[in-house]
Amino acid sequence: MELITIEVRSRIRSCNIFILTRDILEKSSIQLKLKENVIILRMGSQIKFLPLNFIKIIPKTLSSLTVTDNWISLRVQTQPIEGSYGSFKTEIVATPGDSTIDFQNNPINIEHRLKGRNCCLRCSRCKNDITNVVFFKRVLPLPSNICEPSEWFCCNHDGSDYSVIPYPRESDCFYERNYRLLNKAIFKKELKIDEDSQTVTCNRCLSTLGGHSTYKDSIKIWNCCVEFKFSDDESDIEKASDPLQDFISIVSNRTDIFTGNRILVETLDGERSHYLILQVMDKNLELLIEKDCAMLSQGDTIELASSRVTKLLYKYTENETEMKRYCVDTERCQVALPVMMAAVDHLSSSTKRYPPSYRIIDKYFVGFVYL
Description:
This protein is mainly beta. Helices cover 11% and strands 39% of the residues. It has two domains: 3-98 and 246-370, Immunoglobulin-like; 109-241, Metal Binding Protein, Guanine Nucleotide Exchange Factor, Chain A, CATH 2.170.150. Strands 1, 2, 6, 7, 19, 20, 21, 22, 23 and 24 form a ten-stranded mixed sheet that branches. Strands 10-11-12-16-15-14-13 form a seven-stranded mixed sheet. Helix 2 packs across helix 5 (337-351). The protein is elongated, with a radius of gyration of 25 Å. The two termini are 26 Å apart.
């Protein structure tokens, strides 16, 4: 057995089950037995037990059972979980996936460490220092890109044109989910800034580190491309972020995202543009997958782990005409090239958890992002 994927939809009390086996199966060699809290699968001389610790199924509701090559797929209804989505005893509906924030391990904690300390930025690839030593007095989050700068303030008493801010001073660090705005003056002269292509390139390894900002005297630096080195302890190196986490945050940290909503993720690699079109299918889906891959082939009992994902339709293209056809009035999000590469790898690996007949819908691939 290779992969086990169970999509649980508690609100409609059903689940889709997809099982990928190592070898191509003969239908006559498969026996499937469903119990309330366990699935028993016999494949020739092998017997596998799948305990269902997180859900209870109704065995008699089995439907859509399909065996194709080395894929087994089926659908079954689940019993309501007391107190989760209402019952005859209560009408209180809990919100799935709620969790407390672990501030110690929260990536945003890096922003609090920056304030009031001497540090410099360096390229995360070649470890080249790209700024002089800087002391940040203000480390502030930027409002959402959806809003125009002129909408960031509720009133205007002094007649100032707020559409031209923010203007980061040398001691300011303004940050967003996947980038930060910094004053040009703190960067070393050797750093390559191309005004025409709007790219910032490391002078040592020629990696693209950011882009030219539309705001006065500032540079946009991608979080995943830089590290912070603190002067009081040179062994204290902190990476600003991770490419995959940057992509996940684009999807998971949004409060305005809803089913059917589209996001266009784009990046520039030299003169080539890359586009990733995302459309939300299920914002908060419970997914059960194998806890230990090694036990799939060794043990008789396969434990499952529960997680929350956002299920997506996605399409990758380098064709700007095709992108515009699919993305009328779609929110655009510019990212670094490593983020785009991590996103495509993550989504394509998630697509492999579905049988071929389930992978494509209306020329989009089906995948998911962990929350």
